[in-house]
Amino acid sequence: MGGGADRRRQGRAGAGRARGARTRRVSRGDERSEADTGPVLVTGGAGFIGCNIANRLAELGHEVLVYDALTRPGVERNLAWLKERHGEQVQAIIADIRDEDELARAAREAKAVFHMAAQVAVTTSMIDPREDFEINIRGTLNLLDAVRLKGDRTPVIFASTNKVYGDLGDLDFRLDGDKYVPMDGEIAARGIGEQRPLDFHTPYGCSKGAADQYVLDYARSFGLATAVVRMSCIYGMRQMGTEDQGWVAHFLIRALEGKTITLYGDGCQVRDILDVSNAVEAYLKAWERIDAIQGHAFNLGGGPENSVSLRELLSHIGQLTGREVDVEFSDWRAGDQRYFVADTRRIRSALGLSPAVPWKEGVARLAEWLRESRAPSAEFIAATTGVVPAGAAS
Fold first, then answer.
1. N or C: which end of the chain has fewer CB within 10 A?
2. Using an 8 Å Cβ cutoff, are 341 and 207 in contact?
3. 240 pLDDT band (50/70/90 cuts)?
4. Secondary structure (3-state) at 95
5. Facing residues of 354 across strands?
């Protein structure tokens, strides 16, 4: 998460730093030396994907350093969940990635970095493009330079976006029922590949695209062990979906609450959606195989077999909830793609990924979690993160 200037280290003093010369066995399969006993840094580690990555790393025996400004509503609950599950194994720095000195201190400790922190919404970038720039470009450059100055080739895996390919306005589509289908048969069968020219649209597309290219160039120019993951739509447990970002969870939350859902455009837009468990696997395998994939970018999504239009998803949600979803329509939003489905053959081949969770199964799982999950108490969140949730204070 990007905003906020607060800096607080959560947990025991000095926790998460490299410890002497001892070794321990972790998931990468061999005994690691003292240089490899530091924590894994997850920027934006209280966010949706970040906290799922942090959780899996901790489950595998790694110490984890979460770096997050906690500016997105609800993410303090994700941090509390991590602390409840893993205790002192997960440490947190509450700070902004624009804080160059604080970020450099965190990076100095890390044996690997998953860079998930970002301004994540196209709509927000249209309101405040300068802040979008500062978080997504300057924040990423702060991190890259901190790692470069360490001089030890600490791996950096960067969360990019399919928005780097623009609105795909040069492609022709036809309507097939409630969904757009590309006229190009190869794209319809396989999706959009990494050979697609970059075409940044909206300030968000520009900032994420520029950061994407910086990450790749630091591998080329300075020999850093970096890789880029250009994500389609990721959904799943711990997602605090809003109208601007995290739309699968947002649709489910609104439907479960019996509230109206606004569709921008005609609702026939198609996306490939991917369960967060599959995304976490991809990020961890990218770290595992960083020597082979250094300096490369990969498209990650559910692929053609998990492509669905907004209308189709709402129909399925109606079946899950037992009632028709109330929908209203509004104008298309800037930079919106009528279609994006990732060609995932390259990343699956390079990383040896498991099959993606079928989208209907994953969405049903998320709906059940949203029904059953109970937020931690305000007292527990305050005790574990030092942050009082909005509305909890008298």
1. C
2. no
3. confident
4. coil
5. none
- Condensed to tens digits (0 to 9), the pLDDT of residues 248-278 reads 999 999 999 999 999 999 999 999 999 999 9
Question: pTM to 2 decimals?
Answer: 0.87
| 163 contacts 202 by C-beta, under 8 angstroms | yes
Proportion of the chain in helix, strand, coil states, percent, rounded to 5: 45, 20, 40
pLDDT, tens digit, 9 for 90 and up, residues 25-54: 344 433 334 446 799 999 999 999 999 999
Catalytic residue list contains 165: no
Strand partners, 231: 161, 300
Structural domains of the chain, with CATH = 8-385 (3.40.50.720)
The CA-CA-CA angle for residues 185, 187, 191, to 5°, reads: 145
Cα-flanking dihedrals φ and ψ of residue 45, to 5°?
-75, -5
Q: How many angstroms separate the CA atoms of 302 and 321, rounded?
A: 23
DSSP structure class, residue 342: B
How far apart CA 107 and CA 141 sit, in angstroms, is 13
User: Do 264 and 328 meet the contact criterion of CB atoms below 8 Å apart?
Assistant: no
Of the listed 180, 204, 214, 218, which one is catalytic?
Answer: 204
Structure tokens, 303:
């692929």
User: Distance (Å, rounded) from C-alpha 44 to C-alpha 54?
Assistant: 10
* Residue whose C-alpha is closest to residue 103's, from 132, 77, 74, 135: 135
Q: Would the CA dihedral through 360, 366, 367, 368 be positive or negative?
A: positive
Please check whether residue 47 is in contact with residue 116, taking contact to mean a CB–CB distance below 8 angstroms: yes
